[in-house]
Structures are given as C-alpha cells and as structure tokens.
Design a protein that fits this description.
about 50% helix; 2 domains; alpha+beta
Length: about 220
C-alpha cells in the first residue's frame, strides 16, 4: 500500500504539469490510477487546453459573424424634437398678381389698373397695380411643429463588395481549423508528458523493488 501511495504522489504532479487541480480531482489515499485515468485527469485540468478550447469557441463566433455579412441588415432609427414656436412660411398675408390670357398676343399677361386719361398703368410706389390678385393667407402656410416625431427603417442587402465577404469567410474558417489543430496538438503534448511521467514512475517502482531485494540479499548474506 505504501508503494501505491508513492506511485500516486510521484505521478500526479508530473502528469498534470501546469494544470490547476481541484480538491475533488485528487485521488483518495490508497487508490491506484492507471495510465488512461492519468491522461483523462490531465486533459480535464490543463490550463493551456482550457485556453485553446475557448479560442476554438471565439473562432467559431467570428466565423458566424463573417457569415452574417451575407444576410440583410435591418436598422431602426427614430427621434423626437420639440419646438417652442410654430413655423410659418409667410410673414403676413400675401396678394399675388394674376395673369390673364390675351387673345391678341395669344399668351398670358398681367392685367394692371390703367389710368382712364392716358391709358397707362397706374403706379404706386413705383410699381404697377394689378387689376386682379390672388389672396394667400398666412395661416395657409403655417404649421404646428411643437412636437415632431420622426423614424426610419432601413434594410441593407450587400450585393457585391469586391470579394471581401467571401474572403472573410474563408479566413475565419481557416482560423477555426487552426485553433482546433492547435488544441489537438496541445492535447497530444499533454498525453506524451503523462505517458513519460507514468512510465518513469513505473521504472522507479521497479528500481525500488530491485533495491529492496538487494537489501534483503545483503541482510541474508550478513546473517
């Protein structure tokens, strides 16, 4: 039983290396672990393997994000604006002159108020007085913009971006494969280290037996 405890005590630190072992993973006193159990314990608790497993997940997420570039994107935008005063296009009521059709010229012309004496258009402030006007009230172009709400929905579908989307998908795919290969390589290194430590302990155990037999032989010869 003492030899078995020695086997576990020597093998566990060598097999796990830089791994973080929880108390529940440490074998109880008197238990014996075979080679496969040592491998599984080291693979489950090695920090480098845990880190590389997370890198595989990150590479997978980046690959999904790159693939999402093929899909349309839907964006929503909205807002609110408060104005203290309303808005009016006109400062006051307007009177607009109106054109009438002239049969002689076969065109539309302004009709002005003419002086009955000389027949010339009557002038006020240097401007002729139109005989007909259109009344445009200020209220017609006044707007209540105290509370303004606005919104927009945008749908964007990439059609061609010079091959950037295809190239990004290839790159992220290769990155995921590389992360997986590096994880597998690290796992193999851990297994190799465990095997070397395990058989080293086995060799030490055999040497221990040989040394004990030599001691017994010397005791016999001494007697």
């Amino acid at each position: 039983m003492a030899k078995r405890r020695l086997l576990i005590a020597l093998l566990a630190p060598l097999a796990l290396g830089a791994a973080a072992v929880s108390p529940s993973d440490i074998p109880s006193e008197g238990s014996v672990m075979n080679l496969e159990q040592c491998r599984q314990l080291a693979l489950a608790n090695n920090k480098d393997l845990r880190r590389s497993a997370q890198q595989i997940k990150v590479a997978g997420y980046e690959k999904d994000q790159a693939f999402a570039a093929y899909l349309p994107s839907l964006d929503f935008a909205g807002g609110y604006m408060y104005n203290q005063k309303g808005i009016s296009v006109l400062e006051s009521d307007q009177l607009l002159p109106i054109k009438s059709f002239n049969p002689e010229t076969k065109g539309y012309e302004f009709d002005f108020v003419k002086n009955p004496i000389d027949g010339k258009p009557m002038m006020v402030d240097g401007k002729p007085i139109p005989s007909q006007v259109a009344y445009l009230p200020k209220e017609a172009l006044s707007y209540d913009l105290h509370n303004v709400f606005f919104g927009a929905v945008t749908l964007t579908q990439p059609i061609f971006m010079g091959g950037k989307i295809v190239a990004m998908n290839k790159i992220t795919g290769y990155a995921e494969q590389l992360a997986t290969a590096m994880h597998d390589n690290s796992a193999q290194d851990v297994i190799y280290a465990v095997d070397a430590a395990y058989w080293q302990v086995v060799s030490l155990k055999a040497k221990q037996k040989l040394a004990v037999s030599y001691v017994n032989l010397l005791d016999t010869l001494s007697h």
